[in-house]
Amino acid sequence: MEYRQISDQYSVAGQILPQDVAAIKAAGFNSVICNRPDGEQPGQPSAASVEAAAKAAGLEFRYIPVISGQVTGENVAEQAAALQDLKGPVFAYCRSGARSTNLYGLIREMGE
Questions:
Q1: 84-87 long-range contacts, Cβ below 8 Å, gap at least 24?
Q2: In this predicted structure, what is the pLDDT of residue 72?
Q3: Number of Cβ atoms within 10 Å of the Cβ of 39
Q4: DSSP assignments along 44-84, one per residue
Q5: What is the pLDDT of residues 28-40, one digit of tens each?
Q6: Which CATH number fits domain 4-111: 3.90.190.10, 3.20.20.70, 3.20.20.10, 3.40.50.2000?
Q7: Mean of the per-residue pLDDT values of the chain
Q8: Which one of 39, 64, 80, 98 has the fewest beta carbons within 10 angstroms of its own beta carbon?
Q9: pTM of the full predicted structure?
């Protein structure tokens, strides 16, 4: 499983599977955020299935679905709140990692 480190407390990846959670934990992450809406593509694992694996591994989990190409102010606010609440480092994922990356950039812009 590959991921991109965006900051010392935030990394992103494309779609993960429940069985990837063990590697996420082993890599030192404490929390997972899913930014991919359920049912976006046939056969993708549900957020609930990844959440169950994350919680079983002792990781915190948030589901903040973002429609591709339609990031809203509410999405940015929810992601920012999650990043304040969750124990880092945080592992966020969507289909390719782009939405999770864009959300982080928008949060950084708000803080400036």
A1: 86/30, 86/31, 86/33, 86/60, 86/62, 87/30, 87/31, 87/60
A2: 95
A3: 9
A4: PPPHHHHHHHHHHTT-EEEE----TT---HHHHHHHHHHHH
A5: 999 999 999 999 9
A6: 3.90.190.10
A7: 96
A8: 39
A9: 0.96
